[in-house]
Design brief:
The chain is of the alpha+beta class. It has one domain. Strands 1-2-3 form a three-stranded antiparallel β-sheet. A hairpin with a 2-residue loop joins strand 2 and strand 3.
Length: 82
């Protein structure tokens, strides 16, 4: 499972519409199955949401997600990954 975030920049808002989804293969095709919809999430809150629902150490995930968010705001990519 992972948090799927779709960008929303309407009306000057910076945020995402987020859902908790699970990846599955059905008849050889990959698809995402909706587990929970979170609705609109401001961009500064997205790292916390991902840290809460991803596997691994929450503190490490939070720091990585905050770095990604900062890189997006400055227009650059950190370590060539995004």
């Amino acid at each position: 499972m992972f948090v799927k975030a779709i960008t929303d920049n309407k009306n000057g808002r910076e945020g995402y519409y987020c859902s908790l989804v699970e990846s599955r293969r059905v008849d050889g095709k990959s698809l995402h199955v909706l587990i929970q919809s979170f609705g609109y999430v401001p961009s500064k809150r997205l790292p916390y949401l991902r840290a809460a629902f991803n596997e691994g150490e929450p503190e490490e995930i939070l720091s990585r997600e905050k770095a990604k968010l900062a890189a997006r705001k400055t227009g650059g990519k950190k370590n060539g990954k995004d």
